[in-house]
Amino acid sequence: MVREISSGGVVVRQRAGNWMVAAIEPVRESSGRGRKGKLSQKIVLALPKGLVDAGEKLEQTAIREVLEETGLRAAPVAKLCDIKYVYVRSWGDGERVFKIVSFYLLRYESGEIDQISSDMRIEVKRALWIPLEEAQRKLSYKGEREAARRAQEYLRANAEMDEHKNS
User: Fold this and answer.
1) CATH number of the CATH domain containing 25
2) 12 in Cβ contact with 47 (< 8 Å)
3) Mean pLDDT (whole number) for 140-155
4) Measured between alpha carbons, how far is residue 92 from residues 66, 97, 107, 162 in Å?
5) What tens digit of pLDDT does each residue of 17-70 get?
6) Is the pTM for the entire model greater than 0.85?
7) Is 166 within the bounds of a domain?
8) CA angle, corner 64, sides to 81 and 83, nearest 5?
9) Could you tell me if residue 165 is inside a domain?
């Protein structure tokens, strides 16, 4: 079985006293079919993430992927979790892949959400802010909902993160 190592970010900022998280809507296959070949109209929302490049540290990958997929610059705060799962490639060889994704809590620094390169539009339909408190309901993947939950817990336990400079 092939192994893949990826890293992603849970980018947070405050707006009007509420924590927001950056999410992406990935470009989907034109067939409109979801998992197990079922026809799906549901919008998929995910956290920005991607494969670790040679010589890159997991945290660096998370920061790079966030910039590429959302247009945001963000600073690392803490590692949240590793999620592990197996999937079958829907392209190429159709091989089973064991994947590990490390998620990091990142604090928004600058940039406009969804200001990404035209090349990235092949992968990302749009990037948007969603309320962190709604992320566990709106994110499509179980492991990513867990990463958002851990981000909420971290923010509750670390009141110093609650600053108004990101309003």
Assistant:
1) 3.90.79.10
2) no
3) 96
4) 26, 12, 36, 46
5) 899 999 999 998 644 444 555 555 689 999 999 999 999 999 999 999 999 999
6) yes
7) no
8) 20
9) no
